[in-house]
Amino acid sequence: MDILFFFVHGLLFGSFLNAWIWRTRSGKPIWKGRSMCPKCSNTLTWKENIPLVSFVWLRGRCLTCQDTISIQYPLVELAMACLFAFSAWFHAGYILLAFRDAFILFFLTFVFVYDTLYQEIWDRMTTYPAFALLIPTALLGWHSGMSITVGIVVGAGFFLLQYLVSKGKWIGGGDIRLGMFMGVILGWPLILVALFFAYVGGTLFVLPFLMLGKKHMATRVPFGAYLTVGTVIAMFYGMQIVSWYVGLIS
Where does residue 34 fall: left (phi above 0), alpha (psi -120 to 50 degrees), or beta otherwise? Predict the structure, then answer.
């Protein structure tokens, strides 16, 4: 029942996230106005606004203008539902931890989608949830104060150093703030696991395109997307990875 509850709410939050992404890009506040078609701006009825179901019912087209609805909408809704359900499954019996990770996964998905589409990371995706997470993390002892501090220094400092050395050419300020968010989420030493998987994953993805000449070294890469994937891996399996590595070298 917990998994089903989180799956259904993941669909709802995925629908909300799609709206927030579009309103962020359009410069519209999320709290004003009802959901609308991004093509014709027609206000959607409740039948057109049911996560996943409406997309299938409408056959991927707006009921009013008949323009194609982006596949992003059902994919984000389904991904959010699966991530929420996974959090409930992983933390079976620990509902508070499942809610915590669902909160984190929502904003990481926000970063992943927006950075992939537009190569931008906003404060509302990183800084705000990081500060919101600090208080319960401290009160409930999810990480020690030292672990969080070192995690933030390593996460944000690593990207700040690159920003200063390259004068903003390699990375942007959004990556620094995302590094800070990662430090709050993971603490030390899991921040290292996330960075490792982000860089390895990014390299493995981009390398074939470089070899085929589809990209070059100056091409902008949405690195925030790789960082979010690395963070999710470290969130759920970081300690097992660290234990395995320590056992390997000891």
Answer: beta
